[in-house]
Amino acid sequence: MPSSPCGPDCVDAPTEAGTLRVAARVLSFAAVLSTFPVAYLAAPRRWRPAVNRRYARTLLFCCGIRIRVIDNSAAGAAPADPGTGLLVVADHVGWTDIAVLAAVQPMGFVARADLIDWPLLGGIARMVRVLPIERESLRRLPGVVDQLAARLRSGDRVAIFPEGTTWCGRARGRLRPALFQAAVDTGTPVRPMHLRYRDRVGNLSTIPGFIGADTLSDSIRRVLRSRGVVAEVVLRPLEMPGTDRHDLARRCERALNDAHADQDFAAWPVHAREAGAGQLREEQPSVQPDQVLAPNAHPDRNAVFKGGSPHRRVVGAVRV
Length: 320
Prior knowledge:
- By secondary structure, the chain is of the alpha/beta class.
- It has one domain.
- The chain is built from 8 helices and 10 strands.
- It has an 8-stranded mixed sheet, sandwiched between helices. It has a two-stranded antiparallel sheet with strand order 9-10.
- Strand 3, helix 4 and strand 4 form a beta-alpha-beta unit.
- It starts with 18 loop residues before the first helix and ends with a strand.
């Protein structure tokens, strides 16, 4: 069974938002969760990925979490063809990871089986076809791999968290190779995405960690009370599946470790709450993350931003 040494001592004391802001977040958070099922089911099937993405972005906005995407995906393997399946491999810090990845690109997820039983979130998970995995039951693992392979074969984009459990974000676990077999069996390319969280001055933050003895309500409460949290997603080059899941897992782990070790961005002051209009690469050209940076890009410290909605656009510059 995967395990993590992370516990309460790993979690930073939050920089707390004001009482009124926290109250507004709680109400808007509940409103988003309760209205999503209606909006999702009412939307035509072809619009549902956009609805999913928009609600994920809005949920993060309600939590006070901004998104920054660093695109280091240009080097290496060629882009995936549109309409083909894609396996996304990401770090696992907490429950916000799913919302962050869904806000960047529409995708499905393989997630812990007990998520299906969580109040409200479980219904949403079933609706968006989350693949449940019971980590305690190895005999059911081949069935999950088969279901994942079927999704990839049909052209779906699906994210997995192969560490098998959550870590605080300062430390990381080894990637378990089992689920990579689905990519090998279907010849599906793999996109490593390094996910980390930063505070308002650019240091790594463990506030969103769902670790140790945390309950879901503990973690949600901590996130809603904090301010200045930025979710940073680093897109890494595609990895071709090859013929060996162990080799594929090692290559993806190396890609995530390289991104984790890159501290070029550690001292960034977070001046911009959001920036828009940037586009990702082949997976979802219409995505507009808060801020998209090219490799080795640094945000202009004098950049000016305007607007009051969660979709503000850049007025100043991003220096490359």
